[in-house]
Structure prediction request, 120 residues.
Amino acid sequence: MRYLALIYQDEADHAQWSQQALAAEQDAYRAFGDEAKKYLVGNGIALMDSNTATTVRVRNGKALLTQGPVVSTKEQYCGHYLLNCRDLNEAVQVAAQIPSAKNGAVEVRPIIEFGTPSNN
Prediction:
């Protein structure tokens, strides 16, 4: 079964990390990618800070754009991994190894499979 591991961190806190701490985090993510390779579907993704987001809502047939994320929270969604695991327990064990789980949060959600898209 596939699961999405959504990674959340406090951007304000993360922005104050030293270059050494940021480099150590990048090393930890590389190590995670190497160690968890058998569970990963493709590569993980990282997002730019939430202040670069544009939120789109359609009301009365018109697209309304708002700069910033959908909601303001202490921790922001900053990336994800798509996992292929036996069950939720295994997915949670893998997610617990994601470096941001130590200072942020990782939400694990089952994927609903709709079928294979065509290559048109």
